[in-house]
Amino acid sequence: MSFWRGALAIVAKDATAELRSKETLSAMLVFALLVVVIFNFSFELRVDNVRQIAPGVLWVAFAFAGVLGLNRSFVLEREGGCIEGLMLTPVDRGVIYLGKFLGNVLFMLVTEAIILPIFAALFDAPVANPLLWLIMLLGTIGLAAVGTLFAAMAVSTRAREIMLPLLLFPVSVPVLIAATKATAQVMDGAGPTAAAPWLRLLLAFDLIFTTVAFLGFEYVLEE
Amino acid sequence: MALEAASEWAVQTEGLRKTFGHVSVLRDINLKIPNHHSATIVGPNGAGKTTLLRILATLTRPSAGRVWVDGLDLHDWGTQACRRIGFASHQLMLYLDLSPQENLRFYGRMYGVPDLEPRIAELLAQVGLGGRRNDPVRTLSRGMQQRLSLARAILHDPSVVLLDEPYTGLDPRAADALSTLLRGLLAQGRTVLMTTHDLARGAEMADQVLVLVAGQVTFQVRTADLSPQELRELYDQHVAPTAPSREGLPLQRRTEDRP
Amino acid sequence: MNKPGYAWLPWLIGLTALSIVVSVCLVFVYVPTERVMGPVQRIFYYHVPSAWVGFLAFFVACLAGGAYLARREIRWDMLQAASDEIGVLFSTIALVSGSLWARPIWNTWWTWDPRLTTTLVMWLYYVVTLMLRGTVESEERRARFHAVLNIVGFINVPLVFLAIRLWRSIHPVLFTSEGFALEPSMLLTLGVCLLAFTLLYACLLALRVRAQGLEHRLLELRQLASLPESEAKGETL
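ok -> structure tokens follow
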């Protein structure tokens, strides 16, 4: 189906460009690492059990690194007028959204996968848990769903990149709360039933906003 | 609604208007460019040439009026029309970190071009980039990048090729090479519509010259009918006196218009 | 947006003024002092309607945004911008009044009450959305972006509320906004205040939209005046 061919072509293009320059992923990794290390350091000085704040730190790191990636994915399109190149192709705008969205999710998951072991070491947190990975996936999808839509808008404004985090964080409050709480429960040894309400909320958020952003993307791109 | 309108016109507009806010950039444009033709639109800065081309390329929506490209009404069939339109402007629309090969491969996939790899090889040879096919576009000279951008524009075999100021920034040799390329496109049966400041070059390439001033087509002529000198005189006549400055006229001057 | 449309405005202003006067009488004279919290509890009668109007305003903005995307008429953009501005205003009042109320009663400046926290999150979002308006030069793009933001923003409201409420239900809330039972006189007072604030919202909205309409017309006239005669002839002044 040409629908998926277009979206996957965009993902492949973004992945190839990234493998070439490595700028985006390295920036995301360094940033996430900084957040994890600095928080660990500053709370060690005061808190007896840093494990308690660990889930929050993890998601702060993921969110900030994610914003970096989301921004860059559109800055690179803007460079050289590539957004118009995309608009010239005979695909629906929604396909462009899907391609960028999937690419963003991919980059964020790669960053998160690399950060996770480092985080586990610093905070002495158990991370080898498929339930945790599910939470990471759902949370990342939520952030990327709205983030891709907002990033496309943000790069078209005079204020450029600063607009994205300002707009994204209020909207992603449900994701951040649900992901952090669920992560905390899982790290404390709780099973799927305890985390279920949070997972449901994440799923609802993901479904609603992927749809809304997919439909709304054409209104953001047109000229 | 029929997908195809029987059409001898590659490009047709009816009552086309475009306003940005309260500023009218295009007023009541009625174009008819026949198939397999080449036409050049000339005019002073701010006349609306780029806006017109962008509307034809489906990048901008008109404020009023109808537009058909290759028989398709852009309002209803914009996405399908994209398959038949190639557009190149000073914005390269190329990914600087990727190579020419990778750029064309990406666009080829997006357009669903069949037999992509041979087509890419053929095009790169045609624009003289065969040797640099694997180098990041960032490392190519501006002239090479422009040639690649043109290759991108015709990759999917469009029947209508729109070029916005293709000669700007090219030295004479590069300009000659471009002219050769464009003649090749015409020989292949495509329609080429371009905008330019350079009246001489534009007239040389075109079957028709249209002069756009302040959003309106002030005259249209077949280049076969006039010598370059006559054309130049006609252009100066139309453009110079009626090219108004957009600086403010005091409101008092309009007293005679008030009811 | 010219003279004819707003004939009803003076009546609305009059009605609003009347309802505000009545509400003040009810709040400060009629309704009895609440036993546990004392006089400070009267803030409640302005705090709740402010929050309500805030959300009403954001809802109207969401609808106006949708209308703009469907119709592309600039008046919908004016409506959405005005409604968001007023929504932020009333949300500010709700947040500040909530804070002032919490301090003497519970000895804290902030309670993590789900409704109040949702108001805070929304406040942040809509403030940024209004900021964004200033960073986009093209009027059409500004309207489009704002419409998308309004729609996304309002769809998010129930999700934010649910998330916070779920969070607070696991850690039992130490204090709620209503630590008291509502007697009939209190209900009446609350109802009147709600009505007064809603009318106030309608007033401010109408005034703001009218002002925007005039600004817009002024800009239009300026641009028409700066065109040379030959081009302006076709335009109506």
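Chain A has a mean pLDDT of 91.
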